[in-house]
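Co-fold these.
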Amino acid sequence: MEKGVLLCVDDEIIVLTALKDQLRRAFGSDFHIDVAESAEEALELLDELALDGHTLLVIVSDWLMPGMKGDEFLIKAHERFPSVVKIMLSGQAESEAVDRARREAALHDFLAKPWNAAALVESITQGLRDRAP
Amino acid sequence: MRDETAALVERIGNLEVELAERRRGEELQRALYEIAALSAADSPQHEHYVELHDIVGRLMHAKNFIIASYDAGDGMIRQQYLVDEDPNEVLESFPFGEGISSLVIRSRLPWLLDHALFESLVGAGEIRAPRGVVDFHSWMGAPLIAQDTVYGLIIVQSYSAEVTYTQADLDLLNYVASHVAAIVARWHSNIALKQANDELAASAETLRLLGDIGKDLTGSLDALAICKTMERHIAALLPMDAFGVALLSPAGDSLDYVYYIEDGVLDSTNSYPLDHPTSLAVLTFREDRELTLFNEAQLGNAPTASNIQESAPILSAVFRPLIANGRRIGVVTVQSHQADAYNERGLEVFRSATAYAAIALANADAYATAETARQQAAQALLDLHQAEAHLVHSEKMAALGQLIAGVAHEINTPIGAIKSSGRNISEALDSALLDLPDVLDEMDAAHRGYFSALLKRASQPKSVLSTREERSIVRDVTERLEGLGLEQARHRAGLLVQLQSHTDLNAVLPLLRHPAADRILDTAHGIASITTNADNINTAVDRVAKIIFALKSFSRFGGVQVWTESDLREGLETVLTIYQNQIKNGIELVRQFEDLPPVSCLPDEINQVWTNLVHNALQAMDHKGNLTLGLRRDGDNAVVSVTDTGCGMTPEVRERIFDAFFTTKPAGEGTGLGLDIVRKIIEKHGGQIFVESEVGRGSTFTVSLPIAGVG
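Predicted complex below.
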């Protein structure tokens, strides 16, 4: 049985680097951490993960990215993986976009940058606990 | 009777031969046993060579005896032991070449030479005659080969016709040599292992020793606190009467002592320009090397701290550049009234503490920079509000204020990365210090060697991979690990790629097969992540710095205007930074910049022109389309163009756009003064502005400015 996957999506490689190390520290023994630099890349990755038999558990996504924005991406991801825990982590997001993600992608949480590591870990842990089976 | 006698004599003769052979056999047996016993030694000593010589001497005539080593790495043959009847013969080292020692090594075969064979080999070009005369009568050389590696050779030779070696002697020498080779091979691996062990033990010890310093230092985000912590730790480890930390000034043109304490008196008022002729800190920084000074004469010319009365002369001093991720950020110095106060170990401790301090100070700087950025943003807003009060047409200012507030918001991304990576570093340090001793204990010497090599590879500079590229490499490595029958292949592949150890899996295979493989890899990854996170902080700080630069340019707005030689490209980049978010949203940005000499202008006003034109262009295409900025030279003029793929203008509109109070925007969005102000600024600079436009295709605004300025 392959480990479950936590996926981080952000167009800033500095954010991905910091997140990846942080989440590996907190969840690395139980989950695999994957990262993608755009929503488009993340959607491709979702297909690959499904093909390889991995279970996607959590998505942490930025909102303002070139190309597809975070709310649209999370809605698309939600259509295919409704039980995945979805968290938005953004320095600036339009409140309509966040509301839309809450309504249409069952957004679990919104965290503002600069984020607090403990709060992010707590949010993910709680999301996993409450996750629809 | 005679027959019987003859038979008896023959039997006795046979018996003697048999006895001699048996004795020889026993002698050989004993010799091999004694050779084997030598392997108990860790490394070859002179006495071991003497013993080998003695052993061989019991088997054959070996008055003239040489053992030489061969190092394929540097191609040198080194005589390690030599006993010779000729007192002029001494130990020599020479490069592998065309002599007879080299012949033995090259052919990997034992050789028995007399003069005739020697001459014919020379004649055939197999070897070249050595320096001096060839004075041996009979010569034997046997290679020391073990595990397919040539470690050297043994030579025996005689100078007189009384001793002529035979094929049997050669076989015996070769047989002995093969046993000696096994010992030499063991010595070699012992030495290599011991070196690896010593290195590792030393680094583990230093790590333990510096662990507290590292934790203390990187835990703090205040430069002064870091200096004090470093002073306290170093004072506990080294003789120290003065300690100072000088950091590169924000402008990058001087070293400022943020902390200098001598004989308990603090003075942080000293600053030295980077071209200062005698400051040792400046010299250290400029030449980017450690400076160790152990006598007064060397120290004599250096300036002393202005507010400190020296109690006694400083006789020893060490200066070392502070380098965080390849960037020089300042200099640390420790000094003493004693002469020769710093030995090599002390220096080593100082160096390592300096490395930690550099990371800590860079972190502190990152936070300070981020904090400054926030203040700059706040100040920019404040300045704008003040400017507002003086300006009748405040709408534009309010819009600019909004814009800058948006940019300040953008700083949150790098700050988030800095904060997280800073925390990752201190957690990584914590767990590395906790886990490392246990993990080292679980490994034997050989595995520690592999571990040490793994850490070394992981600390090499990293190449930047896109997430796609990295994933494809990880997938490939996963398959290779699965092919080797290893569990958790994907997880481990990820770690190996992070540790830059995926190209040569053989080098890490022993660690992967170790029972504690997971903990070994995790610990290595933890240690390596310190570098990764420090690099990340560095990149994030660069980003913040760029945004601050843009904010600074704008916060000056409304201040006193000064004619300056200014690089137009920098101004354009500043404006693009300010609009970065809006551009990122759906704009394809094209820069067509040529190199231009600086233009004499009022930079803030000129930047306002670019801001206006870029702002209009983005609005004209509703933030979707191509924005092309051009910069070129046309005779004595600099020409800047801003092209959008927006809605364009009818000829009627185009006629009126530079008129005051003309606007096509809804009420409340524009004052109709933007392009009027732009035109006035350009006229003030003796320049011109043109516009080309086509409905549905877009517009190009072209600004031409005299490079030499007005008049």
